[in-house]
Amino acid sequence: MKTIAIVGTSGITATELIKLLVKHKKVKIKYLLTTSSLTSLQQEFDTFKKEYNLQEDVKLLYTYDEEIYKLLGNIDLIFLCLPHKVSIEFVKKLVDVLGEKQLPKIIDLSADFRIKNVKLYEQFYKTSHILPKLLQKFVYGLPEMSKKTKQQIKKTNFIANPGCYPTTVILGLVPIIKFVKEVIIDAKSGYSGGGKKLVEEYEGYGGNNTYPYSASGEHRHIPEIEEQLSSLAQKNIKIVFTPHVVPQYQGMLTTIYIRVQSYEFRVMSLYKKYKNYYKNCPFVKILPIGSLPQTRDVVKTNFCEIGFAEHNKWIKIFVAIDNLIKGAVGQAVQNMNLMFGFDETEGLR
Fold it and tell me: How far apart are CA 175 and CA 344, in angstroms?
C-alpha cells in the first residue's frame, strides 16, 4: 500500500482527486495539506469524511509549518494541487529541507514544470523559474503521447501533469503531427476549468454564457502545446488557438482544423491511422466514421474520444474529455499507476 499526500486541498482539483483516491485499492491518503488555515481544512475534512468516505486517520497539515516538510520525506508520492508559482515554491522548500535525492515521487498539476523552455515559461507566467535544473527531470505526463513517453513515466520520480486543453490538442494531433503545417484550434471548456473563483463568479450571475478568452495568442497553454508538438514533429509547430467557456460545469470539446493536400489524409485513412496508433491505449476511443464526440459520453471518466469530419481540403478532428478528470486528476492517477507499476486503469474504471 503506497502512501499519498495531497497539497492544496481547497481547490476543485484536490476534491476530485480525493474522490478517485479513496476508491483506489493500492494507495492510502496519509496527509492533506492546506495553504489556508487548519480551521478551514478541518471544515473541508469533515466534508470529505462525510461525502467521500475519507479515512479517519488522515492527518491534516498546514503547509507553512516547517515540520511538515520532514514528514513528507517518509511518504511515497505527493500530488501538488496548487496554482503555478505556489507549487514551485513548495517544491523549492522540500528540496531545501530534504535534499533532491530524498524527495518522494511528485506529480505536479500546476504549470510550473510543464514547459522546458524557461524563457517561455517566464514570459507567459510572468514569474521567474526558481528550479531550472529540477525542471529538466520532470517528465511531461501524457501517457498516450508515445511509447517513449509511457516508458519515461514508468521510470521517473517527477511528473508534470498536462493541462486540459493541451491534452485534447496533443492527443488529437500526435498520430499525424509530422505531416501537419497549418493548425487552427477551437476549444470549449466547462466553467470548472477556471477554478473555484470562476465557478463562483459564473454561477453567481446565473451562468448561461458562452465566451472566448485569451484570444490574441496570450493563453498560457500555447507554449506547452507548441513545445510538445514541435518535439514530436521534429520541426517548429505554431498554432492558432481560441479557447471558450461554455455553460456546463465540466467537460471539454476541442475542434482541430488542418489543411491537407493529399488524399492520404482523408477521413477513412485517418480513422485507420488513429486506431492503430492508440490500439494499446485503454483510455482513448476512436469513434466510427460518421460518429462525433460529445462531452456527455466522457464526463466523470478518464476517457478521451476522437472523431473526424472533412470539408473541402480541410480535415476536422474532434476531441472530447472531462477537463477535471482526463484533463487533470484522472490523468494524474493514471500517471501514478504507471510510476508504481500498477495496472494503468486501476481506480479509473
Answer: 21
Q: Which of 81, 164, 281, 304 is catalytic?
A: 164
Q: Is residue 348 assigned to a domain? A: no
Residue 55: domain span: 2-162+327-340
Read off the pTM: 0.95
Chain centroid to CA 96: how far?
27
Same domain, 72 and 155: yes
Nearest-angstrom CA–CA distance, 278 and 286: 8
Looking at the structure, tell me whether residues 297 and 202 fall in a common domain: yes
d(CA 77, CA 333): 11
Query: What is the per-residue pLDDT across 286-313, written as a single tens digit (0 to 9) for each?
Result: 999 999 999 999 999 999 999 999 988 8
Q: Could you give the angle at which helices 12-21 and 38-52 cross, rounded to 10 degrees? A: 40
Query: What are the tens digits of pLDDT across the range 25-70?
Result: 999 999 999 877 667 777 777 877 778 778 878 988 887 777 889 9
Residue 164 known to be catalytic: yes
Burial of 299 (0-12, 13-18, 19+ CB in 10 A): buried
Quick one: DSSP state of residue 181?
A: -
- CATH value at residue 237: 3.30.360.10
* 111 and 26 belong to one structural domain: yes
Phi, psi of 78 (to 5 degrees): -115, 130
Q: Do 103 and 184 belong together in one domain?
A: no
